[in-house]
Amino acid sequence: MKKIEAVIKPFKLDDVREALGEIGITGMTVQEVKGFGRQKGHTELYRGAEYMVDFLPKVKIEVVIVDDLLEQAIEAIVETARTGKIGDGKIFVTDIERVIRIRTGEENDEAV
After folding, report:
1. 12 CB burial (10 A radius; 0-12, 13-18, 19+)
2. Burial (CB count <10 Å: 0-12, 13-18, 19+), residue 108
3. What is the DSSP letter of 100?
4. Distance between CA atoms of 85 and 45, rounded to whole angstroms?
5. 16 pLDDT above the threshold of 70
6. Are the C-beta atoms of 7 and 57 separated by less than 8 Å?
7. With DSSP H G I counted as helix, E B as strand and the rest as coil, what are the percentages for the chain, rounded to 5?
8. Of the candidates 95, 109, 13, which has an alpha carbon nearest to the alpha carbon of residue 61?
9. pLDDT tens-digit profile of 34-70?
10. Cα–Cα distance for residue pair 95/105, rounded to 1 Å
11. Which contiguous run of DSSP H or E holds residue 89?
C-alpha cells in the first residue's frame, strides 16, 4: 500500500476529488495548510502599504491506496491540479506498512 500526500492550490480540490473518485478512490483526508516553495510568497498592497505574504494558502490531500492504483492516482492528481503556473504543488509517495479499520478490525487492503 502507498500513501499519497498532495499539496495543491485550494481551488483545485473539487476537481482532484472528482478525478480520484472516478478511479475508485473514495476516502481521503484534506487539510488547509500554508506554505511556500520556489514561489517564495508574494507582495500585496493593503491600505496603501505593501507587505510580504510568505506563506500561501494550500490544501493537503492524504490518500492511502493499494499499489495497483498508484500510477492512476498520481496521473489523476497531476492532470487536474496542474495550472502550468508556479505554485501548482507537490506529490509525495510513501510506503504504508499496516492499516487497521478501528470499527471492524479489518486490516491492510480490506481496511482501505
Report:
1. buried
2. middle
3. B
4. 22
5. yes
6. no
7. 30, 40, 35
8. 13
9. 887 776 666 666 677 776 667 788 999 999 999 999 9
10. 21
11. strand 89-95
Residue 52 vs residues 43, 46, 63, 82: alpha-carbon distances, Å: 4, 10, 33, 25
Task: Give pLDDT tens digits for 83-111.
Answer: 998 889 999 999 999 999 999 999 988 88
- Give residue 39's pLDDT: 62
DSSP assignment of 38-81: TT--EEEEETTEEEEE-SEEEEEEEEEE-GGGHHHHHHHHHHHH
Average per-residue pLDDT for the chain = 90
